Amino acid sequence: MLLRLKQVAVSGRLLPFSSALDAGQLLHLVGPNSAGKSTLLSVIVGLQSADGSIELEQRPLGDWRGNALAQVWGWLPQQQLPLSQMPVWHYLRLHLQTADAGTDRRLTSLLQRLQLDDKLSRLLTQLSGGEWQRVRLAAVCAQIDPQINPRGRLLILDELLTALDLAQQKAVDDLIAELCAAGIIVIVIVIVIVIVIASSHDLNHSLQQADCVWLMDPGDVVAQGTPAAVLTPSQLTPLYQIAFRQLEIEGRTLLTVLP
């Protein structure tokens, strides 16, 4: 296994939890606000001390240092203000280990797919919310992209789809699928906002896109497994205190909430 957690716990915030992820998996963390999703991700990337142990490439996380760890994993936090008045191209370069023709070609491809190729000279502080989100995503993807950095193994994204429209979300989904196919583990926090009489886009996105799901109640991972096994009305209804139902439409399983 590429990433292994053994009885990981944070006093008062996260009950002991064990799991493992292999290369190429897309994991969604699902749960209500204050369930501990960001705490768990912070533990995984080494920003939060915890009991138990975490191994990355069969090495304890604590044995990884500085630049070596930055070459293996990329981390996109939920919120981040622009660093300065630097242009987009400068910010992107800060995330790259190399600068050659191959890197430039791959970075150009990433920027085109995320509709950023015309934003390179713009200052970070001049970007809209969606543009800044996509610039940050392009930077962290380039940091671990196997075509740029063969050491890349893990990409962690906190509330990835915030401020993105549907076309941009589709481009991001395609990019994540490509990274997974290349052997990268991708972990995504999914924020679920359930509106009565409307289906939950976020849950159905996880149901269709993820390889596995960790479902969190405050401070505890209450279920883990395939989306079909975890994202069921029987498990979601008590968690969100809203009645869910499951539908089969054109061969696809969808979740809605009852009015």
Beta strand count: 12
Spatial shape: globular
Q: Tell me the distance between the termini.
A: 43 Å
| Biggest sheet record | 6 strands, mixed
Mean pLDDT: 87
Structural class: alpha/beta
Q: What share of the residues lie within helices?
A: 25-40%
The ordered string of helix (H) and strand (E) elements is EEEHEEHEHHHEHEHEEHHEE
Strand percentage lies at: 25-35%
Radius of gyration: 19 Å
Enumerate how many helices there are, as a single number: 9
- As laid out across the biggest beta sheet, the strand order is 6-7-8-3-9-10
> Can you tell me the residue ranges where pLDDT is under 50 for at least 5 consecutive residues?
193-200
Write the layout of secondary structure elements.
Layout: E1 3-10, E2 14-21, E3 26-31, H1 37-44, E4 51-56, E5 59-60, H2 66-72, E6 73-76, H3 88-93, H4 101-113, H5 129-144, E7 154-158, H6 166-181, E8 185-191, H7 201-209, E9 212-217, E10 220-225, H8 227-230, H9 233-240, E11 244-249, E12 252-257
Parallel strand pairs: 3-8, 3-9, 6-7, 7-8
Antiparallel strand pairs: 1-2, 1-4, 4-5, 9-10, 11-12
